[in-house]
């Protein structure tokens, strides 16, 4: 299972009829996610015991899944032995994991991931794009900003927005406008 590298890998996690951007932490050969209580992702993992990491290169999908639900036609089913999972149809690659909740705090759970299947669908090479990376950063800050309206987070979002406008392509700029619409509601 070599699709993820050491550090935090930003992916779109899918569980049953749910998608959300999540960081998978790869450290010392182990894979984990930190999920906050009250999220659909954690509730579904508790119920079903699996999650799929979707590698996606569309910044609009990161923003949409951070703030909204995707329609059912974005998903497809995969079966491995007795495990049936859902992934994103348009993922470039995906990894299915069995999950185990290792420990919990008052606000989050640490989930251990055990890979069971993976597939590379699109072998395209994507160079580093500062605009794309800034959409991801602004989205992370945006999810926190809508909860507490911290002015420092808004400054960070504005900084990344300027990088998106300078370095991103049309899809990154579209994702930025979508993000700004979500956080201004």
Mean residue pLDDT? 96
User: What is the general shape?
Assistant: globular
The name CATH uses for the topology of the largest domain is Pnp Oxidase, Chain A
- State the fourth-level CATH superfamily of the largest domain: Electron Transport, Fmn-binding Protein, Chain A
Strand order of the largest sheet: 1-2-3-8-7-4
Q: How many strand elements?
A: 8
- Using the CA coordinates, give the radius of gyration: 16 Å
In whole angstroms, how far apart are the ends?
40 Å
Sequence of secondary-structure elements: EEEHEHEEEEHHH
Amount of helix: 25-40%
Main beta sheet: strand number and arrangement? 6 strands, antiparallel, barrel
Q: How many domain units? A: 2
